[in-house]
Amino acid sequence: MKDQASEARRNGRSRCCNKYDYVIVGGGLHGSLAALSILHNSPHARIALIEKEAALGGSHTWSFFPHHIHPESAPWFADLIYKSWPGHQVLFPGFHRKLSCGYASITSESLHRVVMEMVEGSVNGEIFLGDPAVRLTSDRVVLKSGAVLRGRLVLDGRGQPENEVFKGAGVQKFYGVEAEVELVDKTRLGFDPTQPCLMDATVKGWDGYRFFYILPFAAERWLVEETFFSDEADFDNGESRKRIERYLHKRGVRLKDVLREESGALAMPWRNPAPCNDARLTGDYAEAGASYPSPYPSPFKLGLRGGWYHPATGYSLVQGVEVAVLLGKYAPHAPPGEEICALRKGLARRSRFMRFLNWMLFRAVHPGKRLNLMERFYGFSEGLIDRYYACRPGRFDPWMLLFWKPPHPRYFKILPEKGSHG
To answer: Which CATH topology does 4-64+72-82+108-161+274-348 take?
Structure first.
């Protein structure tokens, strides 16, 4: 809760000022990262952060490998981390493997707390909650309440439009519960309860590749998600919750109380993306190496809406931090278009092979054999696996993934699946 002084200061600014250096639309992950980076590097920057809901961040958990995060973000990013672990593990029908790469998570609650403290504690920061944007242009945002906010730079972090998400893409869909649990029979658990289990794929599969994802925030408080790599985005959360309860029971764990739920669907595209920002910043102009005016002629798109994500996982935190670092570097001014294009072209270059792997997983391979491909993948070295999740494949990684002990021909749709007829 804000104290009366900060509330009065906030209201006073609302009445007298609607001009800002930055108007950030969307108080989710990417709008929040941008606000933190800008204010850390330019404490007097005039910022308006707009979120349609009553709190920032929604109901989400964002997890990542800490060493993938841009090092220049450390001063403002570290406080967001809710929980970290020294390693993680995966379970497949053929093996249980522990990996030494650390893992960490940010929750919606930690995001809301840190961003609220930073923005409301700044000289010129302001947050608008529960008042969605209804119109955006290059230099102004109109809110549902009728307020008009003018900005030197408008940042659009509202997420990818629903009608564009799954064109030319597979789907990673999930439903999960954060719950109080009790470990009743450790002998049935099958994995280390002190470290995250990123994939328990020993369960019966259908609808493509199915696995469970477990984050032990505390000994008796876990986040458990059922996840599918599927061709369809449709999902029944109610049925998934029942399956989670049955899964935990089979593992010797009693679900005592559900604290919150979360669900989602992430695109895993194989097609190359269309330009996501203005043509003078991306697309053909970027390839031609043209120079660009600043500020930009349209709102700058953050996160999934702007194509800043890892295509083979659907995750966007690492790329969001890189964009936020660039915004902070030039605050309170807009970054040069050339630097944005260089960042985008680097991501596009590293993503080409990842999109090809998505094509293999969702288009070339029988859905029932996706498990076999993922199990094979986790048999490679930790270095290769780590570079894959960093979206920074090494020179020989594509060769290793495609040709070293290659997938069985029966995995591919050119031949019928084993046991099928016709």
So the answer is: FAD/NAD(P)-binding domain (3.50.50)
Distance, in Å, from the CA atom of 371 to the CA atom of 359, rounded to the nearest integer, reads 15
* CATH 3.50.50.60 intervals, the chain: 4-64+72-82+108-161+274-348
Q: Give how far the C-alpha of residue 214 lies from the chain's centroid of Cα atoms, to the nearest Å.
A: 17
pLDDT (tens digit, 9 = 90+) per residue, 140-153?
999 999 999 999 99
Query: Which DSSP string do the residues of 245-302 spell out, in sequence order?
Result: HHHHHHTTEEEEEEEEEEEEEEEEE-SPPPP-S-TTTSHHHHHHT----SS-SSPEEP
Phi-psi category of 350—alpha, beta or left, where left has phi over 0 and alpha has psi -120 to 50?
Answer: alpha
Burial-class residue 180 by CB neighbours within 10 Å (0-12, 13-18, 19+). middle
Q: How far apart are CA 114 and CA 82, in angstroms?
A: 11
Distance CA 47, CA 38 (A): 9
- In tens, the pLDDT along 245-286 reads 999 999 999 999 999 999 999 999 998 765 444 444 433 323
Alpha carbons within 13 A on the beta-carbon side of 112: 17
Question: What type of residue sits at position 240?
Answer: S
Query: What is the distance between the alpha carbons of residues 110 and 63, in angstroms, rounded to a whole number?
Result: 13
User: What band does 13 get if pLDDT is binned at 50, 70 and 90?
Assistant: very low
Structure tokens at 41: 């590097």
CB 18 within 8 A of CB 150: yes
Dig out the tokens for 40 from the structure. Answer: 């850390």
